[in-house]
Amino acid sequence: MHDARYQHGLQQLAQVAGTDQPAIVAALADISPDLAYFTVAFGYGDIYARPGLTPHQRQLATIAALAALGNARPQLVFHLHGALNVGCTPAEIVETLIHLVGYAGFPAALNGIFAAEEVLRARGITLEAPATPETEPGERYRRGWAALEKIDGAAGQRVIESLRDIAPDLGRYIVEFGFGDIYTRPGLDLTTREIVTVAALAAMGTALPQLKVHIHGLLNVGGTRTAVVETFIHIAVYAGFPAAINATLAAKEVLRERDGTHPA
């Protein structure tokens, strides 16, 4: 079964794993060698090798999806190592997990951070956490509203407006915390933040309206149609084809709504 797809996949997997003897092949050899083959040939030979996303973006999207799902810690640990192996910085990894707070919740972010701590400690890496700067009253909201307008545009503004007559404080928290505190942090550029956001939302599959808002957001901050679609194809490996199909159909609606104004 060691055909060209498998060999190509093995090369891709070796970059992520940091070794030309990936453990997954030996681990499955006596119980399901076919699953090992599919993992390598499809997951890496077909999917990871595709253009449209860099290895750096693929690994951060994978971490976001796995941490948001919260049901595959061994694979999350593997891909945390993988992110470092393909050149992601420890700060980018930590920031990706902090970013998930607004979409998958504090438990998912905390569990992801603890897994990252384990990986960094195993590799002898220490990370100095930057201090959160103090802000004047009202500054968080102003900063958050500016970020929301830039990233999500009219789609995000409609979300906040829709909450005014039922839960205005929720709208304020989204602006102040989600955008004022989180989106304005250093460590990830806006395009990467939106890639990890749509990856997490697509993987969870429980927030289609918010996924559409952030597909708009990814396009608004310079992401391409290719990056949007490629992120969802990539997610099929970790969250399954139904999640990937639903996210891609949501993207189709967003792109139609934008009437072809997105970059190619």
From TrEMBL:
It comes from the Bacteria. GO terms for molecular function: peroxiredoxin activity. Residues 33-118, 168-253 form the Carboxymuconolactone decarboxylase-like domain. This is 4-carboxymuconolactone decarboxylase. InterPro entries: 4CMD/NDH-1_regulator, AhpD-like, CMD-like. It comes from Paludibacterium purpuratum.
